[in-house]
Design goal:
The protein is mainly α. The chain has helices spanning about 5-25, 55-74, and strands at about 40-45, 50. The protein has 2 domains: about 1-30; about 35-74. Helices cover about 60% and strands about 10% of the residues. Strands 1-2 form a two-stranded antiparallel ribbon.
Length: about 70
């Protein structure tokens, strides 16, 4: 078997654990996520629409940086 796949699975697992720990311990301090300027929120009587445009752009940039760093390391 290819050992590279194993390395990637370990890295992904560690990343998920780190994210889980951050959410668990800093959950109350991360309430700004989803409420950034540029996130679209429409609320009416029987309708709620939420489109987190800015939040998704921020997450995309962070994930791109993380993947780039992982590729440079391995």
């Amino acid at each position: 078997m290819n050992t590279t796949i194993g390395k990637y699975l370990i890295i992904i697992g560690l990343f998920i654990v780190v994210i889980g720990v951050l959410i668990y311990f800093l959950g109350d301090k991360l309430s700004w996520i989803g409420r950034l300027p540029g996130d679209i929120r429409i609320e009416k009587e029987n309708l709620k629409i939420f489109i987190p445009v800015t939040t998704m752009i921020l997450i995309s940039i962070l994930l791109t940086l993380i993947v780039t760093l992982i590729k440079k390391i391995f």
